[in-house]
């Protein structure tokens, strides 16, 4: 979605599960091998939402012709972006769920 902050997304290839697709896309777009965790399905956009912890790994900018460089936000910045509607609708709708499963206690 032009002009909005978004995360990796792509269509599921024929014969591929959504989990296989998200693993492939993370690898193709960042060079990272991760273990995504299913969070929910956004029925409004017909897409599954996964989260993943990249730990201390640094994503590579593998497809500069398709996307901009990676930017990381802390949760206070994320909240501001959400309130300004700078995130995709799915990220705004599921922000509490995303934060709950990705933030460690005390952070």
Describe this structure in words.
The structure is a single chain. Helices cover 33% and strands 10% of the residues. It has helices spanning 18-30, 75-83, 89-93, 95-102; strands spanning 37-42, 47-51. It has a two-stranded antiparallel sheet with strand order 1-2. Strand 1 (37-42) and strand 2 (47-51) form a beta hairpin. The chain is globular.
Task: Fill in the keyword field for this structure.
alpha+beta; 4 helices; 2 strands; 107 residues; single chain
Q: Could you give a quick summary of the protein structure above?
A:
This protein is α+β, with helices and mostly antiparallel strands. The protein has four helices and two strands.
**How many beta-strand segments?**
2
Q: Unreliable segments (pLDDT under 50, ≥5 consecutive)? A: none
Series of secondary-structure elements, N-terminal to C-terminal? HEEHHH
The first-to-last residue Cα distance is 29 Å
Structural class: alpha+beta
Average pLDDT reading: 82
Radius of gyration: 14 Å
- Share of helical residues: 25-40%
Read across the widest sheet, the strand sequence of neighbours is 1-2
Shape: globular
The main β sheet shows up as:
2 strands, antiparallel
Tally of DSSP helical segments: 4
- Kindly give the count of domains: 1
Approximate strand percentage? 5-15%
């Amino acid at each position: 979605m032009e002009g909005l902050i978004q995360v990796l997304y792509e269509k599921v290839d024929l014969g591929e599960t959504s989990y296989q697709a998200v693993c492939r896309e993370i690898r193709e777009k960042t060079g990272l091998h991760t273990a995504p965790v299913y969070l929910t399905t956004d029925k409004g956009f017909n897409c599954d939402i996964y989260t993943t912890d990249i730990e201390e790994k640094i994503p590579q900018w593998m497809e500069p012709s398709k996307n901009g460089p990676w930017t990381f936000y802390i949760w206070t910045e994320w909240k501001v972006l959400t309130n300004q509607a700078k995130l995709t609708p799915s990220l705004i709708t599921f922000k509490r769920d995303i934060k709950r499963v990705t933030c460690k206690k005390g952070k």
